[in-house]
Specification:
single chain; mainly alpha; two-stranded antiparallel ribbon; 23 helices; 2 strands; globular
């Protein structure tokens, strides 16, 4: 029965993605254009954005194909647990890794195709009404949201069934270990997609803003700016493909962690074993109802409607989760996750704590980053005294914004462990990710609306159309910040759940913080967060330098460009961003991938546990702080551009633009990538646990 439920929800999710895609494609650009000349401009610009995005994806995926192949060989060779009933665990883990990576790539590709088709249709729909433009952007985002959910659910179930009936039925725990390879594949792609996409989009954004807005004094998305197409491409590769891969990895990893921890207890109870996957499926119909039941008919309703979608999905999932939990889990108390006497109600409360915590973290992110509220307005006011005070206030806001979310995560962990042991932590992560279909829909809506505004500007569609798209974009900017907060919170719980599964696999009964190897690991983990942040920030700076020089060169050497009588060489900026992002993403990515393997091999499982905890604590604080500082700087700029504090062209506006430029790599590169760092390191440690246990501690064993 549970398998049928999971299959039904997975297929229904893909069917919903197809339906939403048909809605997007039904909008005719030719009929929506005001004239043949406008239609030609729209199709030309859209093609440039789509071609640039697809060119980047294909080049990135070619690079990833080499990594996936080589790392699959590493998995197959190093994972050689002799206690696995003669099953070649390494080989099957490698296959699961490849399947997870391909599924993640496919989800990103589908979302990118729809986003680049939805942006122009959102622009022409906005000519008819704000409501039509909103629906088109939401439909485009929903393709990503439901397509990813369906692929994640069916991919994990397919891997489980193939392993369950292809391996010895007496080894369910080994099957769960192998299934972790699926999550590893998704998370590996997510890291490179997030880092590469983040470097791409911010290199283009920084170049477009500093040279276009500050030096040349032209508006955002002005077609005279050579970096404008690369900037629009970057919105898609970072916030659509990158965020999609990130959350796909979280779903796969948290589900795998729960199933690994529960495998021994539920070895003879497949419905209970598959409970984590089944309860994840509840978010699909809940999210669908949340999306189709609400519309935005006026400017004041847009942001509220997006929040209502998420709120309804959260409430529906909370209601439906209890009967499903009672139905699938044993009626009598059972021992699970290191806790005696766990009940189905306790497991549900663990799930519910994550669901509620995720919603609250999203709300807090909105409070700190939206210019509707005081914190970001303070940053905007600080801009009136210069760039320095803008930066100081933005940094302070980011640090302060990390406090309450951290406390919420801590409370969630305490509730979850008290109710269901370490299994409860995994369930709380699944709860936080339960509404991923609607959360990712709202997140992908943001870049679609942003691109629609850029198209309206570049195609000269008129001030009234641009005003409507700006309303859509303003709401999307806030919800994108909420999506980042949601992703970071879920990553913290997912990484902690994976850590618990790793400790279980390595049979570490306790971790002594006074053990010098553990203390050394904590420091190494903390230093790793700093090194990764420095690498990714510097990578954006290096890529932006190339972009800035190219934009300046074109302004200087192309006659008539500033007057609007000549066309910028957009393709050169797209190529610069692509080459820089692919070049710069490798070092931080490979550092994250191989650190757990090397530490475990040289120093053993105990020190590796310290590294994971050190990285987890520091990365969560860094990620929340950086993402919220960047979001606040961005919205402080938009607040001034709306007419507050003197509006565009003032010294306050120039200071806010610089602050936003500093915040770009904070919120779209380093901050979001840190949550993948902790997840990826944790799941690599889990997958390679047999290798670390059997062969780890090379240097440690040499010492007296």
């Amino acid at each position: 029965m549970v398998v049928e439920l999971i299959v039904t929800c997975g297929v229904a999710s893909l069917a919903a993605a197809v339906m939403f895609n048909m809605r997007v494609q039904s909008v005719s650009v030719e009929k929506g254009a005001a004239s043949p000349e406008e239609f030609e401009r729209l199709t030309t610009i859209t093609k440039a954005i789509r071609d640039g995005a697809m060119a980047f994806l294909f080049r990135e995926y070619r690079t990833l194909a080499v990594f996936i192949t080589l790392f699959a060989l590493v998995i197959a060779i190093l994972i050689d647990d002799p206690h696995t009933l003669n099953v070649n665990e390494g080989r099957y883990s490698a296959v699961a890794f490849v399947v997870g990576a391909i599924t993640s790539i496919l989800a990103g590709f589908i979302g990118m195709r729809t986003a680049t088709a939805g942006n122009v249709r959102t622009a022409v729909s906005a000519r008819e009404s704000l409501e039509k433009g909103f629906l088109t952007a939401i439909n485009a985002g929903a393709v990503m949201g439901f397509g990813l959910s369906g692929l994640a659910v069916l991919g994990m179930l397919g891997c489980y069934l193939a392993l369950r009936y292809g391996l010895a039925a007496e080894a369910p725990h080994t099957i769960m270990e192998i299934l972790s390879g699926f999550g590893l594949g998704g998370s590996s792609v997510a890291l490179f997609a997030r880092v590469g996409g983040g470097i791409y989009t911010k290199a283009a954004d920084v170049g477009a803003d500093l040279v276009g807005k500050v030096e040349a004094g032209i508006p955002e998305d002005d077609p005279r700016n050579p970096a404008v197409i690369a900037d629009n491409v970057g919105d898609n590769v970072g916030d659509v493909a990158g965020m999609g891969a990130d959350l796909f990895g979280s779903v796969a990893e948290s589900t795998c962690a729960a199933m690994v921890i529960g495998a021994l207890t539920f070895a003879d109870n497949p419905p209970a074993l598959l409970y984590p996957l089944a309860i994840s499926c509840l978010g699909i119909p809940s999210s669908f109802l949340g999306i189709v039941l609400f519309k935005a008919r006026s400017e004041q309703e847009v942001q509220g409607t997006l929040k209502k979608m998420l709120m309804l999905a959260t409430i529906l999932m909370a209601i439906a989760g209890y009967p499903l939990t009672k139905y699938l889990l044993p009626a009598e108390p059972f021992d699970l996750g290191g806790k005696v006497g766990v009940t189905a109600t306790g497991v549900y409360l663990s799930f519910l704590s994550g669901l509620i915590s995720g919603y609250l973290i999203g709300w807090l992110t909105e409070y700190y980053t939206s210019h509707t509220y005081g914190p970001t307005q303070e940053v905007a006011k600080a801009s009136t005294t210069g760039t320095a005070t803008n930066i100081i206030y933005g940094l302070a806001l980011g640090y302060n914004s990390a406090v309450v979310p951290s406390l919420l995560i801590a409370a969630t962990v305490i509730i979850a462990v008290s109710q269901a042991g370490v299994y409860g932590i995994a369930l709380s992560a699944i709860g936080m990710l339960g509404t991923i279909s609607v959360a990712l829909t709202i997140d992908a809506y943001g870049p679609v609306a942003d691109n629609a505004g850029g198209l309206a500007e570049m195609a000269h569609m008129g001030a009234d159309i641009r005003k409507r798209t700006d309303v859509l974009d303003a709401a999307g900017n806030t919800t994108a910040a909420m999506g980042k907060g949601f992703a970071i919170g879920s990553a913290a719980l997912t990484a902690l759940a994976l850590f618990s599964a790793y400790v279980t696999q390595c049979n570490l009964k306790e971790i002594n913080l006074l053990d010098p190897w553990v203390m050394a690991g904590l420091l190494v983990g903390g230093a790793l967060t700093c090194a990764f942040s420095a690498m990714t920030m510097r990578s954006v700076g290096l890529a932006a330098l190339d972009m800035i020089e190219e934009v300046r060169r074109q302004f200087r050497t192309i006659p008539g460009l500033m007057e609007g009588t000549a066309t910028a060489e957009y393709a050169k900026c797209v190529d610069i961003a692509t080459q820089a992002s692919l070049r710069e993403m490798l070092r931080p990515g490979l550092m994250v991938v191989f650190t757990p393997i090397i530490v475990g091999w040289l120093f053993g499982p105990t020190m590796l546990a310290g590294v994971l905890i050190g990285a987890l604590i520091t990365a969560v604080i860094f990620a929340i702080s950086m993402a919220n500082s960047g979001g606040s700087w961005d919205n402080a700029k938009k607040y001034i551009e709306s007419g507050a504090l003197g509006g565009r062209g003032t010294e306050a506006h120039k200071a806010a633009v610089v602050g936003d430029t500093v915040g770009d790599p904070f919120k779209d590169t380093s901050g979001p990538a840190l949550n993948i760092l902790i997840k990826l390191m944790a799941i690599i440690s889990l997958v390679f646990a047999p290798f670390v246990v059997n062969h780890g501690g090379l240097i440690r064993n040499m010492l007296p």
